[in-house]
Write a structure and sequence with these properties.
Chains A, B: Keywords: DNA-binding, Transcription, Transcription regulation. The structure is a homodimer of 151-residue chains. Chain A has a domain of 105 residues: Orthogonal Bundle (Arc Repressor Mutant, subunit A), CATH 1.10.10. Chain A has 7 helices and 3 strands, in the order αααβααββαα. The longest helix of chain A is centred in the N-terminal third of the chain and has 24 residues. At the A-B interface, helix 2, helix 6 and helix 7 of A face helix 2, helix 6 and helix 7 of B. Chain A binds a DNA duplex (30 and 30 nucleotides) through helix 3 and helix 5.
Chain lengths: 151, 151
DNA sequence: ATATTACATTTGTATATACAATTGTTGTAT
DNA sequence: ATACAACAATTGTATATACAAATGTAATAT
């Protein structure tokens, strides 16, 4: 993993705020790349995977697009198109809501559930690995700092 | 800013590693959105802005595409196309390298430099603002933890 | 009852990114 | 000198995201 100093070769000392922001960008890339390399063989992007997990969390109850969008970690401008791709792969189903035909209900399929259950231990593993350089105490500190940061 | 609990309504307690990863994703989005809203009026994306700063750091000396890519915070699969857009806006110039015609040298223009000099204090400001919930000590802690995380 | 407004999703356009294939140039091996 | 490998950038295809406009449905106001 590249360090700040390696990347910003020509720079003087950066203000702490900028260093922090850059470090968050780098950490984000680090996590996303690792996740993607695990999900790739399952033909899923990180975002698609997260939506599938959201749908599973509903225990077979459907969610409409806005509900999904609200629960997404990376706010998605285009849930429609993301769902389109999950549909093509057979991981979700889509129905117009009977009570309010403006809304679209989305379900996870058996195939989607099966894929998630295969992925669960793999993802747990990579998440552990990616954070293994920090102790539990340090992880808690990091969490608290990040939460406070954007409070 | 949304909290983890608000987003993941249906979830049980998450493992600390997952919480940390999600928190980094959220922080990344937070920073990027704020930066973008500042850069938007200047017709620049966050990534384009960063490349311009890299080029300025060279003090008028040119960089080829690979050098730029190495210095970029968000590794860019397509520096070519990013530079294309900076070119259209007149912020950079592009020449084939005489010594090695495979390489393309890229310079920042006066217009690019002028735009950066206008942006400098604005960016400093927003960076301060975005991190103002943390003390200097906390920012240092956060930096150290993030560095250690991906060491 | 019709017009207007608000709601929910879709579509279009643009940028950033991932990855593979292609093009053109240079260096090397024989 | 020619063939082949390595290098540097470009192009093509796909996904995610930002934002605006368009479509279709429901609620309301008169």
């Amino acid at each position: 993993m590249k360090e700040l100093e390696d990347i910003l070769k020509t720079s003087k000392t950066l203000p702490l705020s900028r260093k922090t922001i850059i470090n968050v960008f780098l950490s984000n890339t680090y996590f996303k790349d690792e996740m993607l390399s695990v999900l790739k063989p399952f033909d899923l992007s990180v975002e698609q995977f997260n939506v599938l997990r959201i749908l599973r969390g509903q225990n077979e109850k459907p969610l409409n697009l806005q509900d999904i969008q609200d629960r997404m970690v990376n706010k998605m401008s285009n849930t429609t198109r993301l769902i389109d791709k999950l549909l093509l792969k057979g991981f979700v189903e889509r129905n117009t809501c009977a009570k309010n035909r403006r809304k679209i209900e989305i379900f996870i399929t058996q195939d989607g559930l099966k894929t998630l259950s295969v992925l669960d231990p793999i993802i747990d593993d990579i998440e552990q690995q990616m954070t293994s350089n920090l102790s539990q105490t340090e992880l808690e500190q990091l969490n608290n700092l990040l939460t406070k940061l954007k409070a």
